[in-house]
């Protein structure tokens, strides 16, 4: 299987970020992992790199509950800049929420590919990369 260039984790849960990063590194399927602990910093990064496809991630794993800018607020802003990003970025919501309201709300957003209930397994990672 071909590795992807870059995956971005947007999550403030240090344990989840640590464990998921280690699993991704061990899979050898991702060349670079970028980590942001809130949606605002991730959005600023995307805006600073509009059109610079090499700097942009192939996949974003996005938590819903974060300080400063949560996942929903990030998605509201992402939808606005998506037409000018210059690259197809696949977004997966990764949340501990099992609320059917959250799942249906996420699936109603075209830019969201899937809703994954934490944790992310190696099998799920492989599936995400295969689906690109």
TrEMBL record:
Pfam families linked to this entry: Response_reg
Phosphoprotein is among the record's keywords: yes
Record PTM 4-aspartylphosphate, positions in chain: 63
Domain Response regulatory as annotated: residue spans: 6-132
Key words of the record: Phosphoprotein
Keyword check for Phosphoprotein: yes
Identification of the protein by name: Response regulator
Provenance organism: Flavobacterium taihuense
């Amino acid at each position: 299987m071909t590795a992807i260039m870059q995956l971005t984790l947007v999550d403030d849960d240090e344990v989840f970020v640590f464990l998921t990063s280690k699993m991704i590194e061990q899979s050898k399927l991702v060349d670079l992992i970028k980590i942001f602990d809130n949606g605002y910093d991730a959005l600023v990064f995307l805006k600073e790199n509009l059109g610079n496809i090499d700097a942009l991630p192939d996949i974003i794993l996005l938590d819903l509950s974060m300080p400063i800018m949560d996942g929903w607020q990030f998605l509201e802003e992402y939808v606005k800049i998506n037409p000018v990003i210059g690259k197809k970025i696949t977004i997966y919501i990764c949340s501990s929420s099992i609320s059917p309201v959250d799942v249906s709300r996420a699936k109603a957003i075209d830019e969201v590919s899937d809703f994954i209930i934490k944790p992310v397994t190696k099998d799920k990672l492989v599936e995400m990369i295969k689906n690109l």
